[in-house]
C-alpha cells in the first residue's frame, strides 16, 4: 500500500529532520525550505497534509496558507501552521486563512502527530468502534469541568458515529468526566432534539487558550446522531 504524503515547509533544517525521522515510518515525507518551493511541491506532488512554518522568510506562513487555499489543486489539502507565538489572535488568524490547526513551538512529536492524524480524519484511532462521518452537528454540552465548576457551552461535532463524537470545546475537560449533551438547531427531519450522556475518553490540549479537542463516548450507542443517506 502506498504511503500518504506529508509535506514539511520549514527553513529550519533541524525541524525538517526531526519531522522526517518521526513520520517516515508511516508517511512519504516531502520537504521544502522556502515558500516558493513549498507551493511548487504542494501543487506538483499532491501531499495529503502540509506542515507549514508560520515565520517563512519574505512571505509569512499565513499568507502562504492563504495562497494554497486559493489554488484549485491544493485548496482541499489540510494545512497545519507551526509558530512560536502563543497568542489567541495568532491562532484565530491562522484559522481565518484556512489552516486546519495551529501548533505552538516548541512542540512534542506526539502533539504534532496527533494533529496530522486528526487532519486526515484518523484520530484517535484506538477509540474508534465504528466508522465516523465528518458531520458538523450543533450541540449544547453541560456538566462540571476539571475544577468541578458547572458549565454549559455551545459547540459542534467535527465527526460522529453511533458510539461517539469528536468535538472542540472552549473548556478543558479531563478524561473520565461525564457530560450531558443534546443536539441544538438540528433539522426536524432527524426527529427533533436528541439528548444523551457521554464520557470524555480522549483529549489533546490545544495551546493555552483553546479550543480543546475531546473524544466523547456515548454512554449508550445511538444511531440518532448519524444521518442515514
Topology (SSEs and partners):
Elements: E1 4-9, H1 13-23, E2 27-32, H2 35-45, E3 49-53, H3 61-70, E4 79-83, H4 88-96, E5 101-104, H5 109-119, E6 133-134, E7 138-144, E8 150-160, E9 164-169, E10 178-183, E11 195-204, E12 212-218
Parallel strand pairs: 1-2, 1-3, 3-4, 4-5
Antiparallel strand pairs: 6-8, 7-8, 7-10, 8-9, 9-12, 10-11, 11-12
What does this structure look like?
The protein is of the alpha/beta class and 229 residues long. It has two domains: 4-123, 3-Layer(aba) Sandwich (Rossmann fold), CATH 3.40.50; 126-225, Thrombin, subunit H. The chain contains five helices and twelve strands. The strands form two sheets. It has a six-stranded antiparallel barrel with strand order 7-8-9-12-11-10. Strand 8 (150-160) and strand 9 (164-169) form a beta hairpin. It starts with a strand and ends in an 11-residue tail after the last strand. The model is unreliable at 123-129 and 186-192 (pLDDT under 50).
* Largest sheet features: 6 strands, antiparallel, barrel
As residue ranges, the low-confidence spans are: 123-129, 186-192
With strands numbered from the N-terminus, the spatial order across the biggest sheet is: 7-8-9-12-11-10
Query: Which homologous superfamily in CATH is the superfamily of the largest domain?
Result: Response regulator
Mean pLDDT: 80
Instruction: Give the helix level as a range of percent.
Output: 10-25%
Number of helices: 5
Number of strands: 12
Give the percentage of residues in beta strands: 25-35%
Rg of Cα set: 19 Å
CATH architecture of the largest domain: 3-Layer(aba) Sandwich
Structural class: alpha/beta
**Which of globular, elongated, flat, extended, rod-shaped describes the shape?**
elongated
Terminal CA distance: 30 Å
Number of domains: 2
For the record, the CATH class of the largest domain is Alpha Beta
Helix-strand sequence: EHEHEHEHEHEEEEEEE
Could you tell me the CATH topology label of the largest domain.
Rossmann fold
Amino acid at each position: 500500500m502506498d504511503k500518504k504524503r506529508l509535506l514539511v515547509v520549514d527553513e529550519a533544517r533541524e525541524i525538517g529532520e526531526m519531522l522526517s525521522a518521526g513520520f517516515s515510518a508511516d508517511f512519504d515525507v516531502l520537504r521544502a525550505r522556502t515558500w516558493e518551493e513549498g507551493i511548487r511541491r504542494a501543487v506538483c506532488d499532491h501531499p495529503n497534509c502540509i506542515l507549514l512554518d508560520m515565520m517563512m522568510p519574505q512571505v509569512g506562513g499565513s499568507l502562504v496558507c492563504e495562497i494554497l487555499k486559493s489554488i484549485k489543486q491544493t485548496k482541499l489539502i489540510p494545512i497545519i501552521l507551526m509558530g512560536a507565538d502563543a497568542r489567541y489572535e495568532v491562532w484565530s488568524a491562522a484559522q481565518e486563512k484556512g489552516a486546519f490547526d495551529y501548533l505552538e513551538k516548541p512542540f512534542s512529536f506526539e502533539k504534532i502527530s496527533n494533529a496530522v492524524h486528526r487532519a486526515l480524519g484518523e484520530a484517535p484511532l484506538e477509540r474508534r468502534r465504528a466508522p465516523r462521518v465528518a458531520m458538523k452537528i450543533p450541540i449544547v454540552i453541560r456538566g462540571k469541568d476539571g475544577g468541578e465548576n458547572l458549565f454549559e457551552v455551545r459547540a459542534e461535532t467535527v465527526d460522529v458515529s453511533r458510539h461517539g463524537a469528536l468535538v472542540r470545546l472552549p473548556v478543558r475537560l479531563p478524561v473520565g468526566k461525564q457530560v450531558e449533551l443534546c443536539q441544538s438547531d438540528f433539522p426536524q427531519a432527524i426527529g427533533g432534539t436528541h439528548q444523551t450522556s457521554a464520557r470524555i475518553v480522549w483529549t489533546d490540549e490545544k495551546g493555552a487558550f483553546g479550543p480543546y479537542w475531546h473524544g466523547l463516548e456515548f454512554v449508550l450507542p445511538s444511531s440518532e446522531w448519524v444521518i442515514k443517506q
